[in-house]
Specification:
alpha/beta; binds nicotinamide-adenine-dinucleotide
Length: about 400
């Protein structure tokens, strides 16, 4: 039976453990938990506790205390703490499920890559769930089939509806420095998808970001409870609360679910932009343009891939793609193919369960190559970190490369 340690007992790790539930106690067992927050440990013990389960205050301590007793580790601590957990895990040749973004600095990215190479490339998957969705897998398959010819450009966007906008304007993620940056934390997924669809190394990147909507409003109060606009504001704590009622596993995880205090989304001390654009140039001539925008009616991820022989277009929420080809003769109706995709409402449009299937195969010792490993994790970070440097320095920057 494979023994798993969890580093970072928050919402994300709980998602993995739920997906692994069917094999728990049979094929694998939860052997250790590491988290500095007593409430997190307490909550996990209530849900997953059993007599042999050991608990620690952080990942390195756990790996030091259990040098031979673990086979695999799930690293779902905050982004800047991934490196400290990953290095000892690699030294022990453990199977690793590592959350995105893999790191928050170029230096950490390089240190983890060097350690990974030194460890002989042990089985490691990065939590890039979009890679595992039917939507992006089909887009990649169409591109690789050559059906749309040579890819020239990619347009993609991530749009944030009110609940997600609230998370990034009043929750801890409102501060750029805490999780790396807004782009890195929210969109390292999307940078990875651009890299994957472009199919070549990213060479240079530029970015603009602005905050124009969520700027201070002197007529509003600092807290919704004191604000006379609260009934009419779509971001007031009262108007956001109904969305939170739908948070999965609300009852079990209780206080681990971030509380959306009633801090004003306009007057809060945030430093994230509320809209940002990123342009990436790839070695094979593909150019990509990505838009990130808060305050939209609904969450959405859109994609358009423009090729020499056709164009792929879709929105992940609609579970279908359209491929438009050139007319073969003048007067012919434009050939448009609708590609239906299996509608999957489960977590991350079905990406989570497919990713965990991959993790299960790794735990069983099968020789599987995850769709996104450490190289992909680092390369996505390098694009996002390059974009942030471009934004800060007001110039086009070269994307850092792995050797
Ligand atoms: N792949 C995805 O789609 C996806 C979705 C959500 C979150 N994530 C990623 O998962 C990670 C965790 O996010 P979350 O939403 O579960 O956050 P969370 O705040 O719910 O959980 C993080 C936990 O880590 C603990 N922690 C802090 N420092 C630690 C340390 N040094 N060692 C061990 N634990 C430590 C915290 O106390 C907390 O309990 C982040 O990297 C995040 O970006 C990925």
């Amino acid at each position: 039976m494979k023994r798993i340690g969890v580093i970072g007992c928050g919402l994300r790790a709980d998602g993995y453990l739920q997906e692994l539930k069917s094999g728990m106690g049979k094929e694998w067992e939860l052997a250790a938990l590491a988290d500095p927050k007593p409430l997190a440990i307490e909550t996990y013990l209530k849900i997953y506790g059993h007599p042999g389960l050991r608990v620690f205050a952080d990942g390195p301590e756990m790996l030091k205390a259990m040098p031979e007793e673990l086979d695999a580790v799930i690293i779902a601590s905050p982004n800047a703490q991934h490196l400290e957990a990953l290095l000892p895990a690699l030294e022990r040749n453990l199977i690793v499920m590592l959350e995105k973004p893999v790191a928050t600095t170029v230096e950490d990215c390089r240190s983890m890559w060097d350690a990974y190479v030194k460890a002989g490339y042990p089985p490691l998957a990065v939590g890039f769930v979009l890679r595992y969705t039917a939507f992006y897998r089909k887009a990649k398959e169409i591109i690789d089939s050559g059906a749309i010819g040579q890819v020239m450009s990619i347009e993609a966007a991530e749009l944030l509806g009110p609940p997600l906008t609230s998370v990034f304007t009043r929750g801890w993620r409102r501060k750029n420095g805490v999780a790396g940056s807004f782009l890195l934390e929210k969109c390292s997924h999307d940078m990875d998808i651009l890299n994957c669809l472009a199919g070549a190394p990213a060479v240079s990147v530029s970015s603009f970001g602005k905050r124009t909507v969520f700027v201070p409003k002197p007529e509003a109060a600092m807290h919704c409870r004191d604000c006379r606009w609260q009934e009419n504001c779509r971001y007031s704590a009262g108007n956001i609360a109904p969305y939170l009622m739908n948070t999965p596993r609300r009852d079990e995880l209780g206080a681990l679910i971030p509380q959306h205090e009633d801090l004003c989304v306009f007057n809060s001390d945030k430093d994230v932009p509320d809209h940002q654009v990123v342009n990436v140039a790839y070695e094979n001539g593909v150019l990509a343009a990505f838009t990130l925008c808060m305050d939209q009616p609904v969450n959405a991820r859109t994609l358009r891939v423009n090729g020499s022989e056709g164009q792929i277009c879709g929105d992940i929420g609609r579970e279908e793609l359209y491929v438009t080809y050139h007319r073969r003769s003048i007067g012919e109706e434009l050939p448009v193919e609708r590609v239906p995709l299996l509608h999957d409402n489960s977590s991350h449009h079905g990406g989570d369960s497919v990713l965990v299937d991959q993790l299960k195969a790794m735990l069983r010792g099968e020789d599987v190559a995850p769709l996104a490993g450490l190289r992909e994790g680092v390369e996505a970070c390098m694009v996002a970190l390059g974009a942030e440097r471009s934004l800060a320095e007001g110039r086009i920057v070269e994307v850092e490369r792995l050797s």
